[in-house]
Amino acid sequence: MQILRRLRASSARAAAAASAGLAALALVLLAPAPAFAHDALEGSAPASGATVATAPAEVRLDFSETPLGVGAQVKVTDPAGTDVSDGAPEVVDRSVHQKLRAGGQAGAYTVVWRVVSSDSHPIEGTFTFTVTAGSTTPASGAGASAAPGTPPGIQASQPGTAQTAPPAPAAQSEPFPWMVAVFAVVAVGLLAALGVGARRRLSRGEEAPEDRTGE
Prior knowledge:
The chain has two domains: 2-31 and 175-214; 41-164, Immunoglobulin-like (Sandwich). The strands form two sheets. Strands 2, 4, 7, 8 and 9 form a five-stranded mixed beta sheet that branches. With 215 residues, it is of the alpha+beta class. Helix content is 31%, strand content 23%.
């Protein structure tokens, strides 16, 4: 009887240990993945809604992290709706610089921007600023248009706000959790081994009293 009690106590401890292991595995598998915030526009020059004396030579966008050097688009239109952007934007550290053509006229300017943040997700937004004095003729260039617009693929948003675009397809793929899979296999194998061992010990314990009785 003592042998049976010991075997049952050993089986109970083994089952408790296996249950604890499975509970730990469940916590690992069900734990939510950490959320990472996209980069954000922290400021600009000229600032959103600012009034400046003359048209600036460039527009600068300052972000919370360094955006990727590909996919950046900045379009600046003057009061007549003419695109006064000069060349492609340049990413320097955490800032994006967009040069403007000289001879900008007075009035309200609209900036529409789109960049790829450091986590590979595109973000976009728009804001305006006002020039109090400038040229009396509109700036000329191949980018002139009859009415203010937005670059292809950019959806206009409210002034002074930044919007997060849908994630770019196949931007990043999360690695398969091999460690979790290995841990699960080991835990299942351990549980099976403990169960088989407990059954064998229990069978031997039951046979021992019968042998003694026969003697």
